[in-house]
Amino acid sequence: MRPRRRGDGLTVPALAAPVVQLVVRTFDMGGGVGAKDRQLAEASPLLAVLGTVSDTLHDWLLAGQALQRVLLVACRHGLQASYLNQPIQVPMLRTKLQQLIGGGFPQILLRLGYPSDEIPAAPRRPIEDVIQSAPA
Predict the structure, then answer these.
(1) Could you give the CA distance from residue 117 to residue 96 in angstroms, rounded to a whole number?
(2) In whole angstroms, what is the distance from residue 103 CA to residue 51 CA?
(3) What is the pLDDT of residue 59?
(4) Own/partner pairs for 68-72, CB < 8 Å, 24+ apart?
(5) What is the predicted pLDDT for the residue at 4?
C-alpha cells in the first residue's frame, strides 16, 4: 500500500481525510495497540466500516456473509485487507465509531489497499483434511 504522496495505489479521498484523522485521534487509548492502530490507519489508503442495522446474532451472521463477499471481491481485484479490531472490540470506542458513521452498528473496521510488494499466499491445509465425503 502506498500513501498519496507516492503517486500510486489507493489514496484517501480529500473528503475522507478528516474522518481518518478523527478515527485515529478518537481511538488511540494509549499504549502499543492505540499507537500501532494510529500508524496503520494514517497509512491506510482506505478505511471501510461494515455495519448492520441492529446488533443481533442474525445481524452478526449477515455481517460475516457481507465480509466474505467484500474480501473475495477485493482479492479478485488484487487488494489486500486487514482488520483494525480495537474500535470494534472496546465498547466505548465502538459507540464513538457508531456516532462517527451516523448510526447502525459497526461490526468490522477494515484497511484496504494494493500491496506494494508481492505477498505470498497463506499456507493451506490439504483438501483431504477439510472435506469429508459421505458414503455412497
Answers:
(1) 34
(2) 9
(3) 96
(4) 70/110
(5) 46
Q: Residue 45's Cα: distance from chain center in Å?
A: 12
CA R_g for the chain: 17
pLDDT of residue 15: 53
- Extents of the domains making up the chain: 7-115
The dihedral built from the CA positions of residue 18, 36, 28 and 84, taken in this order, carries a sign that is positive
Torsion of CA 92, 94, 97, 103, to 10 degrees: -110
107-136 per-position pLDDT tens digit: 999 989 888 888 777 777 888 888 888 887
Contacts of 59 (CB under 8 A, 6+ apart): 52, 53, 105, 107
pLDDT of res. 73: 96
Interaxial angle between packed helices 17-26 and 91-101, expressed in degrees from 0 to 180 and rounded to the nearest 10: 160
Q: Which residues of the chain have pLDDT under 50?
A: 1-11
CATH of domain 7-115: 3.40.109.10
Which residue reads 451472521 in cell numbers?
61
For the record, the C-alpha cell of 73 comes out as 471481491
Cα end-to-end span (Å), the chain: 49
Give the predicted TM-score (pTM) of the model: 0.62
